[in-house]
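Whether sequence alone determines local backbone shape is best considered at the level of individual chains. We regard such an encoding as a compact summary of how the chain folds. The sequence in question and its structure tokens are set out directly beneath this paragraph.
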Amino acid sequence: MTLTAPETSTRAAPAVPGRSRSTLARRLVPYGYLSPTVLLIVVLMVVPIVMVIGYSFRDNVIVQENSVFAGFANYTKVLTDESFLAALKNTGVFISVSTLAHLVLGLTFAMMLNSPLLGGVTKAIFRIVYILPWLFTIAVIAVIWRLLLDPAGVVNHVLQTLGLIQEGVNWFSDPGMALWAVTFVNIWAGYPFFMISLLAALQGIPNDLYEAAAVDGTNWFQRFFHVTLPQLRPVIISMAVLDLIWTSHQFALIWMTTGGGPLNATEMLSTFTYKQAFSEYEFATASAAAVIVLLLTMVLAFFYVRSQRER
């Protein structure tokens, strides 16, 4: 008598409906948490950007019910406008000088606060003093510096006392000085952010690197250029690109100090776009200018993302 082994079934077990539904629910949970943020981004950012891009290709938008398609006419009008070209030039000077000064001042003060030559109490006092500009709002900063740089203000009084000038200078009303005056104010208001970020990066550099460099007989300058700067390079690049983006969008400080004047001497891309929309009521032209600013900002954002990926 021959015994045969029972046949084993090779068919897969039928899927349990309840288990598949629970797996699907677990996969959808992260999207549920993200959905409020995604909804806000779409409503508050994506939709307005799409609307502005649409407005830039039409004429008589918002002010008239029936607008007409204008193609690239608004972009041509903006790019050939002398005020826009002046604003583009002023913005380039404003952001480049501000970013460079922020970097130099921030690194200088950060290295001073990181120096072992200063005691703990002295460092705490200097930290409070250096971070004060960052605690003020733009409105307060604008009012303070308008009073300080007034022809009868403190700055002119000190310069006259030292014999550097003969009469008070109206820094914000002089076409040759206004741009440098608002740039100086922006530098004063923004360097603490660089200082704090670079100070944190300096404190993260291992002391072993400096000790090894000292054993090799290097001086302070060699350790700075061959140890400190290479270690700070990722932070410096990220901060510089971010500062270029933020400074290019500076509006409140310019508007509350000079309003873009005198004679377009401090006209920026932000103030030019604002005037086109809410002073001239040329919303189509303002939309075209806003799209151009968006494209320029996206170029800077591309380099920022690229630097982050390299890190």
Remarks:
- The mean pLDDT is 86.
- The longest helix spans residues 17-56.
